[in-house]
């Protein structure tokens, strides 16, 4: 079947003012203004009310944290005290059932904002949650969204001088065995893959050097990506200097992680030499502006990192350090924060679109998504400008970011509609809200 997405109000693609043709889940051709598709089509979708952009790609999140948004124990804190407050609550209440609800809601919320591919960094494994990655694969498949599931890990707890409670970490052998299991079962390296797997030791202060190095060996064996938190806070710098006698990037290099399989979450506190080294190694960085502002962590050096050669992507980060899972909102936050960091002329809405699409795709090691081009997967987000916030807007593409778009009217993933008229096709959001709210009450009652 060939479908023509015809005459959009605006589209984030060159020479495509007349729309795009979708065939077999891919973009078959871009249609110039006033032109017709080169071959007959089977159906036409009138996109004259819609601003069309590539599906947004979220490269860092913690889905289970939707269950502790704006939690009284954690608001108004920076990262380490925030973690210290929430770890015991998560340890007592994250079960397979609550984890499934947290994952389902985060994925749904992301997709409704225009996200077509997402990565979740799940590192919490209390007893009974050994099948966490399997649950996430099931939920992503049910919703129709692409997902890079990252098999996260922690093996340093409070008894070892770390932050997490002893009950949420696993030993190295258990972690590595399950990493191998989920890679063998779910990692799809083919073009258009719906599910891929990455390995993601949590952070330098929660994992051992052996686990970091063994993760590299597995990644090379299975040809997968590597992910971790790095350079998020000054406290992390101090921790690495005290425990490893080096800065976080030096530690990363010691562990064999300075290579192009790696993308990092946050990447804020890098000096000029570290930016150069990361760029030379083509290490990706996921910029998380909303979380960075919420926790007062600092400002990512996006422009310097890109100039050095680092792919820069965008992420919402955990829904307890962002308090929502709306990737479109994060584009606006990225624009505002980076203008504060640099200036108004050198950071534009086009930069934030690039980070959230092509840059994020590069972080995940994908060349088949992230742009509206012939041959790419037909992953598209459609927005209308009908709300009052858009009245008077002159540039439709700029308006989505500057005027604060939140919800996509339609979303297409691999040529299939997964959101229509602002609502997901495959899930009842009213029921989801009720079930998730009931699950989240456990996290408040135990406080």
UniProtKB/TrEMBL annotation:
| Protein name as it appears in the record | 8-oxoguanine deaminase
Q: Which UniProt keywords apply?
A: Hydrolase, Metal-binding, Zinc
> Which SUPFAM superfamilies does the record associate with it?
Composite domain of metallo-dependent hydrolases (SSF51338), Metallo-dependent hydrolases (SSF51556)
Q: Which GO molecular function, any one, fits this protein according to its record?
A: deaminase activity
* Top-level taxon of origin: Bacteria
Annotated source species: Stappia taiwanensis
InterPro entries in the cross-refs: Amidohydro-rel, Metal-dep_hydrolase_composite, Metal_Hydrolase, MTA/SAH_deaminase
> Which residue numbers delimit the Amidohydrolase-related domain?
51-416
Q: Which family does it belong to?
A: Belongs to the metallo-dependent hydrolases superfamily. ATZ/TRZ family.
* Gene3D superfamilies assigned to the protein according to its UniProt record, in alphabetical order: Metal-dependent hydrolases, Urease, subunit C, domain 1
């Amino acid at each position: 079947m060939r479908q023509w997405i015809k005459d959009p109000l605006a589209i984030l693609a060159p020479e495509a003012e007349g729309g795009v043709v979708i065939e077999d889940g891919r973009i078959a051709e871009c249609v110039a203004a006033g032109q017709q598709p080169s071959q007959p089509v089977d159906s036409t979708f009138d996109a004259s009310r819609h601003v069309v952009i590539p599906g947004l790609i979220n490269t860092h999140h913690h889905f289970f944290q939707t269950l502790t948004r704006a939690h009284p124990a954690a608001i108004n804190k920076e990262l380490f005290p925030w973690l210290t407050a929430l770890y015991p609550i998560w340890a007592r209440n994250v079960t397979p059932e609550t984890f499934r609800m947290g994952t389902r809601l985060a994925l749904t919320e992301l997709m409704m904002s225009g996200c077509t591919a997402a990565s979740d960094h799940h590192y919490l494994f209390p007893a009974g949650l050994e099948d966490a990655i399997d649950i996430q694969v099931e939920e992503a498949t049910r919703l129709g969204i692409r997902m890079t599931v990252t098999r996260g890990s922690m093996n340093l707890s409070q008894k070892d001088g770390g932050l997490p409670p002893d009950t949420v970490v696993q030993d190295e052998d258990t972690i590595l065995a399950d990493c191998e299991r989920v890679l063998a079962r779910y990692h799809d390296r083919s073009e258009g893959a719906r599910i891929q797997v990455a390995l993601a030791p949590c952070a330098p202060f929660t994992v051992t050097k052996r686990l970091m190095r063994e993760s590299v060996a597995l990644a090379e064996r299975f040809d997968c990506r590597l992910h971790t938190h790095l350079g998020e806070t000054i406290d992390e710098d101090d921790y690495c200097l005290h425990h490893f006698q080096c800065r976080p990037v030096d530690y990363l290099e010691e562990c064999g992680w300075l290579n192009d399989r790696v993308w990092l979450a946050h990447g804020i506190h890098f000096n000029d030499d570290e930016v150069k080294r990361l760029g030379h190694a083509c290490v990706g960085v996921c910029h998380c502006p909303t979380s960075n502002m919420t926790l007062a962590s600092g400002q990512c050096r996006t422009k310097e990192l890109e100039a050095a050669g680092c792919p820069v992507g965008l992420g919402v980060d955990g829904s307890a350090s962002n308090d929502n899972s709306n990737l479109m909102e994060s584009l606006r936050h990225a624009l505002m924060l980076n203008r504060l960091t640099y200036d108004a002329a050198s950071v534009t809405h086009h930069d934030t679109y690039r980070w959230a699409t092509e840059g994020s795709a590069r972080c995940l090691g994908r060349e088949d998504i992230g742009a509206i081009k012939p041959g790419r997967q037909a992953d598209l987000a459609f927005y209308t400008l009908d709300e009052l916030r858009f009245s008077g807007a002159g540039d439709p593409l700029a308006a989505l970011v500057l005027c604060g778009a939140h919800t996509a009217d339609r979303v297409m993933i691999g040529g299939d509609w997964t959101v229509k008229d602002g609502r997901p096709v495959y899930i009842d959001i009213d029921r989801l809200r009720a079930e998730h709210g009931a699950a989240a009450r456990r996290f408040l009652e135990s406080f």
